[in-house]
């Protein structure tokens, strides 16, 4: 009798295990290309997997330029299911080549219109916006009595010789948005002339948009051309830096997300659930922990030491133009200035 009960118990346990295995197997693994900062990856993964329990997120992270180049190189055989947190100009370039799935996420109608692709249905949805600032180390400047810059053109002052670091636009989204804004606001010829003069004062072009303000914060360089939130974070941590919005205006970009075309249907369906989260107010509240400007108008982010007047300083920016002219601009920039780029790791 006891043997029969033992057998029954064993069969029951096996049956329960058999039911549990399919339940575990139901999770869909999504490979997501991203340019999110490293310290954002875990919070975003945790939030997505909590909101969409049926998915497992596998990040493939690099800088904007590297992710963009890799994605385009794989366009005939896509390896990613989604792109999350990449520059909208890169997403627009992907859309122009028909590489993204059109999908209107649930709740996207509540977002600022400029944060949603104008296509019907949209191929990408914006998350947050970031802009270029000058991170100026006042302690380093005091050693040589170097003046505090107020404009982009002030950065050509010989007082800053070998004291400026900025991102390489071919590898950094911050670098490209800055260069693209100079060209759009100054005009092509004047912008290249300005960059020729600026190049004389640049010590190195980094492959990270965060690195310039970090280096300025540490006193490794006097000036870093970087992005708003990194500068605010470094200043809040106690760095002797001022965040300067150039009087000509600040270039800007937005982070956006979309679904990759040509992947298995199960992956595409799971990605749509993630896109619903991307557009949600809860997701925007998470973005607001890292960025001051989010897609949802009801999310009011107020990070400490964020520069006043940032939104008003944002220049008129044509994301479609940035996408269409990207290769041409980067080829010209590389020809002129790449000799000062940091070695690639």
- Enter the CATH topology name of the largest domain: D-Maltodextrin-Binding Protein, domain 2
Mean residue pLDDT? 92
Helical run tally:
13
Described by its quaternary structure, the protein is: single chain
Number of strands: 11
Spatial extent as radius of gyration: 23 Å
CATH top level assignment of the largest domain: Alpha Beta
Order of helices and strands: HEHEHEHEEHEHHEHEHEEHHEHH
Task: Identify the CATH homologous superfamily of the largest domain.
Answer: Periplasmic binding protein-like II
Describe what you observe in this structure.
The chain has 13 helices and eleven strands. The chain is globular. 44% of the residues lie in helices and 19% in strands. It has two domains: 2-129 and 253-294, 3-Layer(aba) Sandwich (D-Maltodextrin-Binding Protein, domain 2); 130-252 and 306-340, Periplasmic binding protein-like II (D-Maltodextrin-Binding Protein, domain 2, 3-Layer(aba) Sandwich), CATH 3.40.190.10. With 345 residues, it is an alpha/beta fold. Helix 4 (88-96) crosses helix 13 (319-337). The N and C termini lie far apart (69 Å). The longest helix has 24 residues, at 2-25. Strands 1, 2, 3, 4, 5, 6, 7, 8, 9, 10 and 11 form an eleven-stranded mixed sheet that branches. Helix 2 links the parallel strand 1 (28-34) and strand 2.
């Amino acid at each position: 009798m006891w043997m029969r009960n033992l057998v029954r118990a064993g069969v029951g346990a096996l049956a329960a295990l058999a039911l549990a295995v399919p339940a575990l197997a139901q999770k869909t693994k999504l490979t997501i290309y991203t340019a999110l900062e490293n310290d954002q990856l875990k919070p975003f993964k945790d939030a997505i997997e909590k909101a969409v329990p049926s998915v497992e997120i596998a990040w493939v992270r690099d800088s904007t330029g590297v992710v963009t180049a890799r994605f385009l190189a794989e366009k005939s055989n896509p390896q990613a299911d989604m792109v999350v947190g990449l520059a909208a100009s890169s997403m627009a370039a992907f859309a122009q080549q028909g590489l993204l799935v059109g999908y209107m996420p649930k709740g996207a109608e509540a977002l600022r219109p400029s944060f949603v692709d104008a296509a019907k249905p949209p191929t990408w949805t914006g998350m947050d916006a970031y802009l270029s600032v000058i991170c100026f180390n006042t302690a380093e400047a005091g050693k040589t009595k170097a003046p505090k810059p107020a404009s982009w053109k002030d950065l050509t002052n010989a007082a800053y010789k070998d004291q400026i670091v900025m991102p390489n636009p071919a590898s950094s989204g911050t670098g490209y948005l800055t260069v693209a804004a100079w060209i759009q606001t100054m005009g092509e010829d004047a912008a290249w002339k300005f960059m020729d003069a600026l190049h004389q004062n640049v010590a190195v072009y980094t492959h990270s948009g965060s690195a310039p303000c970090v280096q300025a914060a540490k006193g490794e360089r006097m000036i870093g051309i970087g992005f708003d939130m990194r500068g605010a974070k470094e200043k809040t941590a106690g760095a002797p830096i001022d965040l300067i919005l150039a009087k000509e205006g600040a270039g800007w970009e937005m982070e956006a997300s979309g679904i990759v075309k040509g992947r298995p249907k199960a992956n595409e369906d799971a990605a749509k659930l993630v896109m619903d989260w991307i557009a949600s107010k809860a997701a925007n509240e998470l973005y607001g922990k890292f960025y001051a400007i989010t897609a949802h108008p009801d999310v009011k982010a107020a990070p400490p030491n964020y520069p006043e007047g940032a939104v008003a300083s944002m220049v008129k920016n044509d994301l479609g133009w940035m996408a269409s002219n990207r290769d041409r601009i980067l080829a010209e920039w590389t020809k002129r200035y790449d000799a000062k780029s940091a070695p690639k790791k």
